[in-house]
């Protein structure tokens, strides 16, 4: 299949190029990057030497539709929706890695991202691309909204127990840490080496844009409003997210009942590694992979569940997940091109 990557010079675009190089059914035929237009891919990213003869180009809808059949959009929010809506007028399918199609209500998007949505009708068509909970819908769509990295880690940690949280339960608390690549490739003071090294701090407390995304999906799984307190932190490493989530479960559930809930929910989901009670995940174990490791502790007296998940923010949290969705959309084995294990140490 001929693949186009629009916005291929950012971290997620570069990761798409790396992963797709080993995909047996995909050939990247169209690559754009506004900043590096005219430059060879291998010159900007030497590790991508197999693409030495490929050149970053400026985006053109007509050229894109002529040269590729399936597209990954790795543009910033606001810009992505313009490219997506234009491409879908042709006979193609799209995985969008921005936030532009993750919400069912355009007002939610506009309130949190401060951008007017230019193609709100497509929100009803787009499928949230978390394969472990939306596999069937992904298979039948032409537009997938790839989840954010923090929501991926948080939702996968909590999805199996959402029906066990009582209606009058307290807020779900999510304490999450991310490597610096989660902030993107653009230069900024908080990600400057001298400020980030040997340092950790919370940011966007009470106002992070992934909060409504997490709430919307968890609410749909629960069947009623799920209130989330989400606090992200930057930590001085390149890759990885560790999300530690706290939720009070209802009466009558015990420690022994937790693991069957997770195994039932993720039966057939090979990218979920259930570590179990007291066996907590670590980011190093998933670095460079599309896997999510999950472990927990449940206190029978307080009924407090503490569940942690670890993912690579650029793979399962972005590009790998997008390729997983592409595989499903094309009826290929879900793991095709994504079988790599973690890099250790």
Key words describing this protein structure:
7-stranded mixed sheet, Rossmann fold, Dihydrodipicolinate Reductase, domain 2, 345 residues, 2 domains, 20% strand, 13 strands, alpha/beta
| Chain-averaged pLDDT | 95
Stretches where pLDDT falls below 50 for ≥5 residues?
none
Shape: globular
Q: H/E element string?
A: EHEHHEHEHEHEHEHEHEEHEEEH
Assess the beta-strand content as a share of residues: 15-25%
How would you portray this structure in words?
This protein is of the alpha/beta class and 345 residues long. It folds into 2 domains: 2-125, Rossmann fold (3-Layer(aba) Sandwich); 150-313, Dihydrodipicolinate Reductase, domain 2 (2-Layer Sandwich), CATH 3.30.360.10. It has 11 helices and 13 strands. The chain has helices at 11-20, 41-44, 61-67, 80-87, 106-113, 131-139, 149-158, 193-196, 210-222, 255-265, 315-329, and strands spanning 2-6, 27-32, 70-73, 93-96, 127-128, 143-145, 172-178, 201-202, 228-234, 241-248, 272-277, 292-299, 304-311. The strands form 2 sheets. Strands 8-9-7-10-13-12-11 form a 7-stranded mixed sheet. It has a 6-stranded parallel sheet with strand order 2-1-3-4-6-5, with helices on both faces. β12 and β13 form a beta hairpin. α1 (11-20) crosses α11 (315-329), α6 (131-139) packs parallel to α11 (315-329) and α7 runs parallel beside α9. The two termini are 35 Å apart.
């Amino acid at each position: 299949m001929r693949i186009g990557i629009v916005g291929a010079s950012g971290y997620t675009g570069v990761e798409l190029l790396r992963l797709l190089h080993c995909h047996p059914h995909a050939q990247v035929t169209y690559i754009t990057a506004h900043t590096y237009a005219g430059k060879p891919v291998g010159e900007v990213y030497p590790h991508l030497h197999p693409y030495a003869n490929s050149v970053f180009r400026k985006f053109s809808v007509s050229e894109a539709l002529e040269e590729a059949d399936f597209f990954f959009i790795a543009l910033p929010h606001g810009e992505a929706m313009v490219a997506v809506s234009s491409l879908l007028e042709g006979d193609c399918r799209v995985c969008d890695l921005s936030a532009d199609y993750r919400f069912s209500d355009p007002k939610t998007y506009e309130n949190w991202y401060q951008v007017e949505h230019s193609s709100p009708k497509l929100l009803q068509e787009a499928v949230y691309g978390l394969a472990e909970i939306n596999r069937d819908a992904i298979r039948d769509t032409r537009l997938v909204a790839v989840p954010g990295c923090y929501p991926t880690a948080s939702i996968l940690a909590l999805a199996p127990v959402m029906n066990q949280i009582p209606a009058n339960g307290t807020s779900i608390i999510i304490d999450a840490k991310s490597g610096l690549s989660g902030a993107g490739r653009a230069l900024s003071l908080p990600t400057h080496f001298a400020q980030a090294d040997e340092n950790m701090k919370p940011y966007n407390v009470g106002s992070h844009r992934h909060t409504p995304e997490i709430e919307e999906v968890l609410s749909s799984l629960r069947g009623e409003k799920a209130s989330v307190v989400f606090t992200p932190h930057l930590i001085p490493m390149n890759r990885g997210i560790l999300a530690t989530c706290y939720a009070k479960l209802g009466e009558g559930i015990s420690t022994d009942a937790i693991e069957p809930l997770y195994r039932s929910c993720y039966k057939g989901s090979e990218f979920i590694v259930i570590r179990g009670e007291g066996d907590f995940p670590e980011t190093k174990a998933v670095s460079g992979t599309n896997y999510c490791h999950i472990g927990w502790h449940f206190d029978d007296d307080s009924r407090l569940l503490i569940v942690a998940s670890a993912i690579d923010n650029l793979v399962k949290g972005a590009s790998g997940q997008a390729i997983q969705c592409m595989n499903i959309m094309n009826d290929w084995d879900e793991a095709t091109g994504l079988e790599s294990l973690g890099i250790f140490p």
